[in-house]
Design brief:
Elements: E1 2-4, E2 10-16, H1 19-30, H2 37-55, E3 59-62, H3 67-73, H4 77-89, E4 93-94, E5 98-100, H5 111-118, E6 122-124, E7 131-139, H6 143-154, E8 159-167, H7 176-182
Parallel strand pairs: 2-8, 3-4, 3-7, 7-8
Antiparallel strand pairs: 1-2, 5-6
């Protein structure tokens, strides 16, 4: 499945953000529980390995957390979820090349508010013409993914490919999204 991200083409989407997938991600993000990570990371590998290998990226970048959010949660769920894929691709998982300033949480904001909230929230450096795979756990409006991808390009990335574990279904989306997510 693919979902458009304004200004950056489309993101590869593994599952819909619904049912057990939604509950597992909420558990990780808001209850500070990394227990679902192993199963969800395997979903990422199973979903994206063949396509990501074909894309020939040089490195993988997980959506960073602000220092305050990382301190509260104790881990970056996106990094945990994409680490096995980076290993399977034989590509480095870059840490510190994309940084995020603290902003209020995106949950509960409108699409316009989300875009404003992440404007200038990211800074990237030292990518030196690399093709990178940017991974995030959840895609809703695409504002965060778009802002981070823009920062990676400004930081020297030659190309940015987008991958997410789950996306909020858009109106009129294929019913298979919901069905696939309920099987996880």
């Amino acid at each position: 499945m693919q979902q458009e991200v304004r200004g950056h083409g489309s993101a590869k989407v593994c599952l819909a953000y619904a049912g057990p997938v939604r509950r597992a991600l909420v558990r990780m993000k808001f209850h500070r529980d990394p227990a679902p990570a192993e199963a969800l990371a395997q979903v990422v590998v199973d979903c994206a390995l063949a396509e990501c290998a074909r894309l020939r990226v040089d490195a993988v970048v997980a959506m960073p957390l602000s220092l305050g959010r990382w301190w509260w949660r104790g881990f970056n769920q996106s990094e945990i979820l994409v680490r096995p894929l980076a290993r399977a691709l034989g590509r480095p998982l870059l840490r510190g090349h994309l940084r995020r300033r603290h902003r209020p949480p995106q949950a509960g904001l409108s699409a316009r508010q989300r875009a404003r909230n992440v404007e200038h929230a990211f800074h990237a450096a030292d990518l030196h013409g690399r093709a990178v795979l940017l991974f995030d756990d959840v895609l809703t409006t695409g504002a965060t993914l778009s802002a981070a991808a823009t920062a990676l390009q400004r930081g020297g990335a030659r190309r940015v490919e987008l991958l997410v574990l789950a996306a909020a279904p858009v109106p009129g989306a294929d019913e298979n999204w919901r069905v696939a997510s309920e099987r996880v």
